[in-house]
Amino acid sequence: MPGGSSLFSGFRVLALYSNHVPHALRFHKKHREFYLLTAAGKCFHTYNVNKLGIVSVSNSLSDDITVLAADRMLVFVAAGRLVSAFARNKEVVMCFHGHEQEVRLLLPLGDQLISADAGGDVIVWDVQGGDIYLRLHFDSASFSVSAMMHPSTYLNKVLLGSSQGALQLWNIKTSKLLFTFPGWSAGVTVLQQSPAVDVVGVGTATGRIIIHNIRLDETLMSFTQDWGPISSLAFRTGDVLQLL
């Protein structure tokens, strides 16, 4: 390109600097800015969203990163069977040992962290002490956990989706299954809270998107894309509620 390489320009294509692992987004309350986290092998990169300029590179782990998640204080990273918590986007401050198979999902929830592995174990961790608060085991043949989310305003509740298509609502404080949704005959790939309380977006492996009221167990609407499974969902507010 005229004027030299664009490698170090302020705006860049993130796909050139990350792998297939979905990114994580976090908001820094003190800086009043959003930061984007992308996995790059055994470490992760932190970008300032406003300029897409790199802010920091984390210390390396022993295995490649498979899952990224973040809350306002920490970045949680799964690599193989190990889950690590990073502070300041760089340093490991806590390690969570307890999974016997590769961790596939992470969900920060207040002072707790929920992780799910390929063998059917779902573990609720106490983030401060690193102790196991609750362990649930699911039979992968009947309910293989493929997605997790915390429904807004539902205290101590977690919604789990499965590759078989069913959904389950759990109370992680009492370790009780509250409700089972039969699903829509397609594996669940994504669960996303909408701006409306009780309403959840469900993405499936067949390309169908369902907008479902979990309090009433009522499907409000559905959409279908014909070019593959749903990999992510987001809602945008404004004059008209939009699904992206």
From TrEMBL:
<protein>
    <recommendedName>
        <fullName>WDR36/Utp21 N-terminal domain-containing protein</fullName>
    </recommendedName>
</protein>
<feature type="domain" description="WDR36/Utp21 N-terminal">
    <location>
        <begin position="37"/>
        <end position="239"/>
    </location>
</feature>
<dbReference type="InterPro" id="IPR001680">
    <property type="entry name" value="WD40_rpt"/>
</dbReference>
<dbReference type="Pfam" id="PF25171">
    <property type="entry name" value="Beta-prop_WDR36-Utp21_1st"/>
</dbReference>
<dbReference type="InterPro" id="IPR036322">
    <property type="entry name" value="WD40_repeat_dom_sf"/>
</dbReference>
<dbReference type="InterPro" id="IPR059157">
    <property type="entry name" value="WDR36-Utp21_N"/>
</dbReference>
<dbReference type="InterPro" id="IPR015943">
    <property type="entry name" value="WD40/YVTN_repeat-like_dom_sf"/>
</dbReference>
